[in-house]
C-alpha cells in the first residue's frame, strides 16, 4: 500500500507528487484520468491547435452565460499526463507580487511563495521565446522600456516553459517516472472514507485504491470540487437533491469560480502573419522539416507569442488588462483554416470582479458538470474590457509592424462605444484560467487541508482566492510545490 494518493497528474499534481517523494514524506501513487502525454503534437508548440478538442481535452462547456449573450463558452482542460499544462500555450508568468499579498492568507504572501516559484523555475526553465515572428518582435516598441510583466505597463515577447523547442511540462520536468507510480486511464469517481479520514478513492470502473497517509486532490478547478461533492463534502442542499449523502456540509465548495474574461481583435492582410495564403504554401510544406531540423518556423510557435500589460483607461502605470498576441490568421467566421494571412490580439482582465459557481448536474462521474463562469456579471468587467479594446487599437499603432501591418477586419475599427460593448457580450470568452472553487480560507485551510475531514488536502488552481494577474500555469505549479511542503510537515 502506498502512503499518499494524488488525484490528477496536471500542473500542480505532478509537482506535488514528485516533491512529496523528494522530501521523504512517503511513497506516492499518482492517478490520471487521461492517457500519457507521449504524442508528437503535445510536444510540438503549435500542436496545441490540434490537441485542443481531441481525446486529450475534457472539452467542457459553460452553462449559458446570461450577461454574455446567453452563450455556452468553451472550457478546455487538459486530459492527460501534464494536465492543462500539456495542452496550454506555455506562457510563463508568476503573477503580480500584490496578487499574493492581497490574498491575505498566512503563508501565501509574495515573500512566502517566491521560494516555491524559484524551485519550480529551476526545473521548468522558462525563457523568452527563441524565434518569435517578426510581428511579435515589433510589439516591444509599444513600451520599449520594459519586457512584459504584469507589474507595470510593458510589451514584447513572452517567456515560455519550452526547452530545446519542445514543451517542458511539469510532467516532463519533475522526473516523475523515477519518483512516483503513475497510473493513466484512472478516472476517479469519489473518495473512500474511514470515519472522517480520507483513505483512498473509488474509480469510475468500480475499483478501489487505499493508501495509508492521505489523499491529495489535484484534479483542477473543475474536477476537484466535483470529486469532493460526489464524496459528500459540499453544499448540503445541492448534494441531497442529487442523492449524495452529505458527510460534511461545506456551502462554499464550488463557489467563487472565475476566470480571465477576454475578447480580441482580428487583423487580416497579405504578407502579415502566419496563414495559408498562397505565398506561404512553400513555407508550410517545409515547416515540419524545419521544425524537426532546427526547431524554428511556425511549428515552433506556441501560437500566443507575446503581448502587453497596460491600464485599460491609460490612467495609471498599474496594468488592469493583459493582451495576448497571436501572429497567425484566426478566422472570425467561416471555415477554421482559410487561404489568408493575419494576426490577432486580445484583451483579458487581470482582476475580474465577476464570480460564478461550479456545481454537479448528477452524481454520475461521467456527466458534464454545470460550469457557470459568471462571465461579465459585474458591469465593471464589461466597461474595463471595452476601454481596454479601444486602448489596444491605439497601442498596436505604436508597434513596429512595418509592411506587415494589416487592417482590423473584426469587429473593425469603426465599432466603438455601445456597439463595441455589444460586440464584447457576443464574443467574450476566457483565457482558460478557471480558479477559485475551493478557495484558501474557505473550504480549504491555509495549509491546504479540507476543513471538517482528515487526511485530505487540495493542491491545484482551485485554491486561489482570486486569480493572479497573468497566466495561471506557473502559480498552479507553485501551489503544488507549497502543497508538498505543508503535507510533508503535517502528515509526519
Ligand atoms: C488551452 C489552454 C491554454 C492555456 N494556456 C496557458 C498558458 O499559456 N500559460 C499559463 O500560464 N496557463 C495557461 N493555461 C492555464 C494553465 O494551464 C492551468 O491554469 C493549469 O494547468 C492548471 O493546473 P491544475 O494543476 O490546477 O490543473 P490541470 O493541469 O488541469 O490538471 C488536472 C489533472 O487532473 C486530471 N483529472 C481531472 N479529473 C480527474 C479524475 N476524476 N480522476 C483522475 N484525474 C482527473 C486531469 O485530466 C488533469 O490531468 C491554459 C489552459 C488551457 C486549457
TrEMBL record:
Residues 78-101, 220-234 form the Glucose-methanol-choline oxidoreductase N-terminal domain. This is GMC oxidoreductase. PROSITE patterns: GMC_OXRED_1 (PS00623), GMC_OXRED_2 (PS00624). PANTHER family: CHOLINE DEHYDROGENASE, MITOCHONDRIAL, GLUCOSE-METHANOL-CHOLINE GMC OXIDOREDUCTASE. Keywords: FAD, Flavoprotein. The lineage of its organism: Bacteria, Pseudomonadati, Pseudomonadota, Alphaproteobacteria, Rhodobacterales. Its cofactor is FAD. Belongs to the GMC oxidoreductase family.
Amino acid at each position: 500500500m502506498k502512503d499518499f494518493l494524488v488525484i490528477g497528474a496536471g500542473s500542480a499534481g505532478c509537482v506535488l507528487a514528485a516533491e512529496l517523494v523528494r522530501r521523504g514524506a512517503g511513497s506516492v501513487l499518482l492517478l490520471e484520468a487521461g492517457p500519457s502525454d507521449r504524442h508528437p503534437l503535445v510536444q510540438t508548440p503549435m500542436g496545441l491547435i490540434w490537441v485542443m478538442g481531441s481525446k486529450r481535452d475534457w472539452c467542457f462547456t459553460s452553462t449559458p452565460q446570461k450577461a454574455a449573450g446567453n452563450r455556452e463558452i468553451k472550457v478546455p482542460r487538459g486530459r492527460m499526463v501534464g494536465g492543462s499544462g500539456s495542452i496550454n500555450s506555455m506562457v510563463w508568468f508568476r503573477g503580480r507580487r500584490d496578487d499574493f499579498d492581497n490574498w491575505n492568507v498566512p503563508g501565501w504572501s509574495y515573500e512566502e511563495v517566491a521560494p516555491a516559484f524559484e524551485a519550480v523555475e529551476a526545473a521548468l526553465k522558462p525563457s523568452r521565446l527563441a524565434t518569435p515572428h517578426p510581428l511579435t518582435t515589433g510589439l516591444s516598441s509599444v513600451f520599449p522600456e520594459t519586457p512584459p510583466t504584469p507589474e507595470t505597463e510593458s510589451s514584447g515577447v513572452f517567456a515560455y516553459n519550452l526547452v530545446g523547442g519542445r514543451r517542458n511540462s511539469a510532467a516532463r520536468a519533475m522526473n516523475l517516472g523515477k519518483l512516483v507510480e503513475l497510473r493513466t486511464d484512472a478516472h476517479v469517481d469519489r473518495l473512500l472514507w474511514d470515519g472522517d479520514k480520507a483513505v483512498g478513492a473509488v474509480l469510475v470502473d468500480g475499483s478501489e485504491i487505499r493508501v495509508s497517509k492521505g489523499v491529495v486532490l489535484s484534479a483542477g478547478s473543475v474536477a476537484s470540487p466535483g470529486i469532493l461533492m460526489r464524496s459528500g463534502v459540499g453544499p448540503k442542499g445541492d448534494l441531497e437533491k442529487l442523492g449524495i449523502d452529505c458527510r460534511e456540509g461545506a456551502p462554499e465548495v464550488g463557489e467563487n469560480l472565475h476566470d480571465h474574461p477576454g475578447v480580441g481583435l482580428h487583423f487580416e492582410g497579405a504578407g502579415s502573419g502566419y496563414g495559408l495564403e498562397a505565398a506561404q504554401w512553400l513555407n508550410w510544406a517545409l515547416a515540419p522539416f524545419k521544425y524537426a531540423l532546427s526547431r524554428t518556423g511556425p511549428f515552433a510557435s506556441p501560437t500566443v507569442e507575446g503581448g502587453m500589460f497596460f491600464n485599460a483607461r491609460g490612467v495609471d502605470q498599474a496594468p488592469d488588462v493583459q493582451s495576448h498576441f497571436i501572429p497567425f490568421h484566426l478566422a472570425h467566421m467561416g471555415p477554421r483554416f482559410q487561404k489568408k494571412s493575419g494576426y490577432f490580439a486580445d484583451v483579458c482582465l487581470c482582476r475580474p470582479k465577476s464570480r460564478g459557481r461550479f456545481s454537479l448536474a448528477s452524481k454520475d462521474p461521467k456527466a458534464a458538470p454545470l460550469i457557470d463562469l459568471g462571465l461579465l456579471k459585474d458591469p465593471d468587467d464589461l466597461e474595463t474590457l471595452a476601454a481596454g479594446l479601444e486602448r489596444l487599437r491605439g497601442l498596436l499603432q505604436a508597434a513596429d509592424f512595418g509592411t506587415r501591418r494589416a487592417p482590423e477586419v473584426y469587429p473593425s475599427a469603426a465599432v466603438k462605444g455601445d456597439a463595441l460593448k455589444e460586440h464584447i457580450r457576443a464574443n467574450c470568452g476566457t483565457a482558460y484560467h478557471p480558479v477559485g472553487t475551493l478557495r484558501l480560507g474557505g473550504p480549504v485551510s491555509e495549509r491546504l487541508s479540507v476543513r471538517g475531514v482528515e487526511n485530505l488536502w487540495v493542491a491545484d488552481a482551485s485554491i486561489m482566492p482570486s486569480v493572479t494577474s497573468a497566466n495561471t500555469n506557473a502559480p498552479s505549479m507553485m501551489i503544488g510545490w507549497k502543497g508538498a511542503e505543508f503535507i510533508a510537515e503535517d502528515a509526519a
